[in-house]
Write a structure and sequence with these properties.
The chain has one domain. It has 8 helices and 14 strands. Strands 1, 4, 7, 8, 9, 10, 11 and 14 form an 8-stranded antiparallel beta sheet that branches.
């Protein structure tokens, strides 16, 4: 197992979307997710973790120890079986507690997202449960968003039968004209000790957050960009200040409340450097 990180971290990211759908809601016809009470946009933690996983798979696909457990088309039990085979544990017998510890360690050593985010691997081929050191909150937009429905036209027909009746196909897509989103996250050094989440891993996580939108462009998502990555590094493995007090040091407000926001420059981002607690270092990567 790798040498784990020795410092606790909390972090905040700001990112925006322009004429795109950052996270569609399948229960609402894939409309952008929204808080019904405040009309503020929502992006799930799972959505951001997916982008991190995709980036790591893209840049580390050839490196040992950086496989991705949760990815498109993966069969999880096949990954579990590879752990049993590698550790020579009989699949036909119920694994002992010691067996599960060995299997869990194998999964952490070989799968980046397992040792980073954790995983529930207690299927019929069980490798146990891992609590990941890195956890993300839901992202929320700074201001209420407007869900705009756009009608689109495709100048092609699906089949010959339809070609006799029409010359094009009509469709719909939902976009947010502009939204600035804020996400907060936590990295526990105490949990990192159990998974082997290392300095190399955390640097890769920062890199993935910085670049996660650069390889994820699509017509549906529009223009998305990371605007800020603020990291609070604690001297202690257990932390030197409550995370919510650190998050409060960063505030975002719209400059002109009389007109809708349509760009990042419409906002003022303020960091209260004078209130940073002892034992905490603020690192502004972006």
């Amino acid at each position: 197992m790798r040498d784990s990180i020795k410092n606790r971290y909390d972090f905040v990211i700001l990112y925006d979307v322009e004429n795109g759908n950052p996270n569609g809601d399948p229960d609402a016809g894939n409309m952008p997710r929204i808080d019904a009470e405040t009309s503020r946009g929502i992006v799930t933690d799972v959505c951001i973790k997916r982008k991190v996983r995709n980036y790591v798979e893209l840049v580390k696909s050839e490196d040992t120890g950086f496989r991705i457990y949760i990815k498109e088309g993966s069969v999880l039990n096949q990954a579990h079986q590879s752990a049993y085979d590698h550790e020579h544990i009989d699949l036909k017998k119920k694994p002992t507690r010691e067996d599960i510890d060995i299997l869990r360690a194998f999964m952490c050593d070989n799968y980046y997202d397992v040792r980073t985010f954790g995983a529930v691997m207690s299927s019929e081929i069980s490798c146990g449960i891992v609590r990941g050191p890195a956890q993300f909150n839901f992202s929320r937009s700074v201001d209420p968003i407007f869900q705009q429905e756009v009608t689109i036209t495709r100048m092609a027909i699906t089949n010959e039968r339809d070609a006799e009746k029409k010359t094009n196909e009509m469709g719909r897509k939902f976009v947010v004209p502009y939204g600035l989103y804020r996400m907060e996250g936590y990295i526990s050094a105490a949990l990192a000790e159990k998974t082997g989440f290392s300095e190399e891993d955390i640097n890769l996580l920062w890199e993935a957050l910085e670049n996660m939108f650069e390889h994820d462009h699509s017509a549906a998502r529009g223009k998305m960009a990371l605007r800020k990555l603020i990291i609070f590094k604690h001297q202690s493995i257990y932390g030197n200040a409550p995370s919510h007090k650190l998050f409060d040091l960063l505030s975002v407000e719209r400059i002109n409340q009389q007109i809708p926001s349509r760009q990042y420059q419409d906002y003022k981002v303020t960091i209260d450097y004078t209130a940073i607690p002892d034992g905490v270092e603020l690192i502004e990567r972006v």
